[in-house]
Design a protein that fits this description.
The chain is an all-alpha fold and about 90 residues long. The chain contains three helices and no strands. The N and C termini lie far apart (about 55 Å). About 20% of the residues are buried.
Amino acid sequence: MANIKSAKKRVLIAERNRLRNVAFKTSIKTAIKNVLELAKSDDKEALKLAVSKAYQLCDKAVSKGVLHKNTAARKKSRLVLAVNKIQAAK
């Protein structure tokens, strides 16, 4: 542990930010899993809302600095490709 007061504060802030980032990333993963589950069902409206929610979480993560913009774009692109693939297989 650091000895200087400002360094101690930075350690606390870094841990707080890490926990926030982990929570954000986990919520994105959960939203993506929900979309993929809904893609297997026939409920188009729920699927549309779930995709919208996943997009919203990715975009919010970019604005908060949790994800890089290209990472979010890649996640969104792969999500839509996976949904289309599941839909085509049905």
